[in-house]
Design a protein that fits this description.
Layout (H helix, E strand, L loop, with lengths): L7 H4 L7 H7 L8 E5 L6 E7 L3 E2 L4 E2 L5 H4 L21 H6 L9 H4 L4 H4 L9 E2 L19
Parallel strand pairs: 2-5
Antiparallel strand pairs: 1-2, 3-4
């Protein structure tokens, strides 16, 4: 028996991924957990530095992952909502795979190192603040991901 030469994310569609494969695509950057605002006229998405209160900012992981959707009704299940990928950061593996693009070298599946996403400066570890610590979300809008490479 020969093993496939391409990694699973290059030879399978997102719909074909097993649960374990799906979960392993998450690079752990935490960007999807940042609050976003949408311009009602243009549909443009603006990311803020304010992270969901369930995000452990240092680990860039949800503290209540299994229950997140019942605790935060606006939290989307990407597995059920492929058409929502447009609001994901351009670096997100789910978005990249859906667009037929390769994973970057800092992605843990490529680098083999879980910390590579943080070392590359991609994660929210050093820029996010909990939404519980702010009053006006609009004060924390980032003009771009200029805080990130």
């Amino acid at each position: 028996m020969t093993l496939p030469s391409e990694p699973f994310w290059e030879r399978k569609t997102l719909a074909e991924l097993s649960e374990a494969e799906w979960e392993s695509l998450c690079d752990g950057c935490g960007r999807c957990c940042l609050n976003k605002l949408e311009d009602e006229d243009t549909g443009e998405i603006f990311f803020t530095q304010a992270a969901c209160h369930l995000l452990d900012i240092q680990r860039c992981r949800c503290t209540q992952y299994a229950r997140r959707q019942s605790l935060v009704p606006t939290c989307l299940s990407l597995r059920d909502d492929f058409h929502q990928f447009h609001w994901l950061p351009s670096t997100c593996a789910y978005r990249l795979c859906s667009e037929g693009k390769p994973l970057p070298g800092w992605h843990p599946l490529v680098s083999g190192q879980s910390e590579s996403v943080h070392e590359a400066g991609i994660s929210v570890r050093h820029i996010a603040i909990s939404e519980t610590e702010i009053d006006d979300l609009e004060d924390y809008v980032m003009s771009s991901f200029s805080h990130f490479p």
